[in-house]
Amino acid sequence: MQYKMIVLDLDGTLVDSKKKISQRNKEALQKAMQKGVKVVLASGRPVKGVMPKAEELELEKNNGCILAFNGGRIIDVTTGECLFEVDLPDGYLKTVYELSRKCNIGLVTYEGNDKLITIDDNEYIQLEIRVNHLERVVPKDMVEYVTFPVAKYLLAGDPKEVEKAEPIFKEAVGKELNVFRSDPFFLEILPAGIDKAYGLQKLIDVLGIKREEVIACGDGYNDITMLKFAGLGVAMGNAVEQTKAAADYITLSHDDDGVAAVVEKFIL
């Protein structure tokens, strides 16, 4: 199979434990793009958190794209055009906020491309702010403040608390919204049906690429649908067991240039 696209999760996949893209990964992807393969970065991060990695890989010179918010935003890096966007429906924030209090986990959402909105603070929220270079806004009342469209709610806390909270949130809003863990310490709430596979389907429809011509690489729970959708679904060596079980192939870990190994084996 001649693959025309490689779709890469960021954290735990393309970037290593220090959140860096290795030289080997960078060089392999540059060679793939020289062969005409489209590189797409697909992440739960907001647009501002994905764009620096897209720029580092020079995706703007090679017609690359990003799927931010787990597919809730699709951006053409070359033109800056938003190819697809969807926001959460109104009326759920009060329920989600009150449940976050009962479950003892923090709640954040996003305003525009550069602001994180929360009245909470913990090490996992600090990680989200730091990795994505966001400005933290602390309103007096979270529910009253958020009157604008938002792409997702992110619940962040101790992994044991998040694990216990997941079925509670699914019971409360899971019939109308998409509720899933992206990391052991993150629980994400997106519009119904929105995930990386949905975003990828939207993108390849626009580009005229077949799913069989796509490689997707990931490590987390939120990568499972994308791996199952792609022609070749690749789990990282460091992936959670459920993601490995969903994959067609398991590569090296994110600290051992697992993405480069995939590109070298299946594209170059």
Top keywords for this entry?
single chain, about 270 residues, alpha/beta, Rossmann fold, Hypothetical Protein, Haloacid Dehalogenase-like Hydrolase, Chain: A, domain 2, 2 domains, eight-stranded mixed sheet, six-stranded mixed sheet, 10 helices, 14 strands
CATH-defined fold name of the largest domain: Rossmann fold
The helix content is: 25-40%
Gap between N and C termini: 12 Å
**Count of DSSP E strands?**
14
Shape annotation: globular
Largest sheet: 8 strands, mixed
CATH architecture of the largest domain: 3-Layer(aba) Sandwich
Number of domains: 2
- What is the spatial order of strands in the main beta sheet? 5-4-3-2-1-12-13-14
Estimated structural class: alpha/beta
Low-confidence residue ranges: none
Regarding CATH, which class of the largest domain?
Alpha Beta
Radius of gyration: 18 Å
**Tally of contiguous helical segments:** 10
Give me the strand/helix succession. EHEHEEEHEEHEHEHEEHEHEHEH
Beta-strand fraction estimate: 15-25%
Mean pLDDT: 96
Your description of this structure?
The structure is a single chain. With 268 residues, the chain is of the alpha/beta class. The protein folds into two domains: 5-86 and 194-266, HAD superfamily/HAD-like (Rossmann fold); 93-191, 2-Layer Sandwich (Hypothetical Protein, Haloacid Dehalogenase-like Hydrolase, Chain: A, domain 2). Helices cover 35% and strands 23% of the residues. It has ten helices and 14 strands. Strands 5-4-3-2-1-12-13-14 form an eight-stranded mixed β-sheet, with helices on both faces. Strand 4 and strand 5 form a beta hairpin. Helix 1 packs parallel to helix 10 (258-266) and helix 3 (93-103) runs antiparallel to helix 6. The longest helix has 15 residues, at 159-173. 50% of the residues are buried. The model has no long low-confidence stretch (mean pLDDT 96).
